[in-house]
Amino acid sequence: MKYVLVTGGVVSGLGKGITASSIGVLLQSCGLRVTCIKIDPYLNYDAGTISPYEHGEVFVLDDGSEVDLDLGNYERFLGCILTRDNNITLGKIQQHVMDKERRGDYLGTTVQIVPHVTDAIKEWVERVAMIPVDGKEGPPDVCIIELGGTIGDNESRPFTDALSQLSYSVGPENFCLIHVTLVPVLSVVGEQKTKPTQHSVRDLRGLGLAPNIIACRSTKELEENVKAKLSRFCYVPIQNIFSLHDVHNIWHIPLLLKDQKAHEAISKVLNLAGIAKAPSLEKWASMVEISDNLHVPVRIAVVGKYTDLSDAYLSVLKALMHASVAFGKKLVVDLVPSPDLEKTTKNSCAYKSAWKLLKGADGVLLPGGYGNRGVEGKILAAKYARENNIPFLGICLGMQVAVIEFARSVLCLPDANSTEFKPETKHPCIVFMPEGSTTHMGGTMRLGSRRSYFHVKESISARLYGNKEFVDERHRHRYEVNPDMAVCLEKAGLSFAAKDETGKRIEIVEVPTHPFFIGAQFHPEYKSRPGKVSPLFLGLIAASCGELDAVLNPVSIQQDNNQHVVVGNGRNGDPINGLCNGTNKTSQKQLVREIQVKQYSNQSGRND
């Protein structure tokens, strides 16, 4: 097994996760099979109970594990399916060691950080590294390990010790360390400063880890004299020092690394010359080119209470981007603070600003969340979208809020609410799930991949999913639509398009009289990929552009051997695949999109 360790220095938030993901894409393009492990050195067992303001969103995997958002980056970039064991925390390690101690596995021994905790970390890494995540049999070729936090943090010490031991035990030809660090530019001086990186590398070496590659984050491209200085003082070959300067789209990072021949540097360290092929990133480059050349905007208002930190809605924002690129539109997102929409703030500038953003949007999205802060603002946003025929997508709490608003406005039940926010409400539209725990918070929700069966075959959501009988999507909730109120809600015009396997738990709601008003109890954003767009997000973007028929009545687009565009009827018109799989130039791709939209609009089925 070959290991690539990604560490960070100077400050946190440098983009180690994006760097690790991009390295994975680059290695995959060389024909290598890749897996990933994220190490979070906090004492929490997992990310499930941590506020989004602490570490960003909580990402949910198929197996129901609540993990760091970087695992979402791995899955989106690499197209893999990870498990709970791909996320290591100090809490998990400590519990693992204590369980062994209680069983008597260490009988007669004093349990210590070294060797017992460090051995547990090494064994965990070596075990998980051998598990395939790409759906194929056999172990991967390379395991990318990202160490969270910053080198020098006290909480990371057990992990740096363990990884130092791992590098020694597997040998230098099987271990490549990439150190991501900051090269700041002082505005007064105007030059790139190397001293923070020098000190960070010194600290890294003091922990028994020597970098093979330094990836330098900066606002602009690294100057050659700066590279030479870093090489001289950090004892790293100049060809192994890479510039990761700011780009407007993170999809550029794999291409940036390829252009600087990062694959050759990694291959040389890991002795991959006889295994790795020349990188092939044509499809990725084509996708980036399409994204960079979009000009027609579509404006989506994301209404939530964590809008001060965009990472709190990272997967939602990425899913919107995937869908907009697939549909050939330039995404513009307005993060609208839901508390500012409430009447209690009516005389403030924030109230006017929030409502201006909402009313200026082509579509409205209500993401998930917990707690009653800002809920009334979300209800008002759902009401505005429903009454004004604005395309609307509600996710998890967003769906529950839409049901509450419908009950209040259409059923004339002003007291309608969720028992999460008002336990004594006379009309509980949303109730606590009977199997949920009332004493423990962590890992007790309805989590992971669950199956939803379509009950309304002609619903928009069923058609977006290709008229499948069922879909498997990831969940994260402990409240649900009250089944006792389902009949009266349905009679009032709310359609329950999909339910769980029991036929009682509501999974998707729609307002059939609305152009596009959908709520999903699950989180479709968790499975959205650049090459595999979430149908509900694609539907929202299409409806917001006034072109929903382009998705509901697709026309397949292909190219023949002579690179001629062929348009015809069919269910295989996946927009992003149709745009990205060819080798034609940008102008040809734009022509394909124009033909596609024209054919969708006319619904003629002609070949142009």
UniProtKB/TrEMBL annotation:
Residues 2-272 form the CTP synthase N-terminal domain. Its EC number is 6.3.4.2. InterPro entries: Class_I_gatase-like, CTP_synthase, CTP_synthase_N, GATASE, GATase1_CTP_Synthase, P-loop_NTPase. Residues 309-541 form the Glutamine amidotransferase domain. GO terms for molecular function: ATP binding; CTP synthase activity; identical protein binding. GO terms for biological process: 'de novo' CTP biosynthetic process; pyrimidine nucleobase biosynthetic process. It catalyses: UTP + L-glutamine + ATP + H2O = CTP + L-glutamate + ADP + phosphate + 2 H(+). Keywords: ATP-binding, Glutamine amidotransferase, Ligase, Nucleotide-binding, Pyrimidine biosynthesis. The keyword Endoplasmic reticulum does not apply. It comes from the Eukaryota. Pathway: Pyrimidine metabolism; CTP biosynthesis via de novo pathway; CTP from UDP: step 2/2. NCBIfam families: PRK05380.1, PyrG. Catalyzes the ATP-dependent amination of UTP to CTP with either L-glutamine or ammonia as the source of nitrogen. Belongs to the CTP synthase family. This is CTP synthase. It comes from Brassica carinata (Ethiopian mustard).
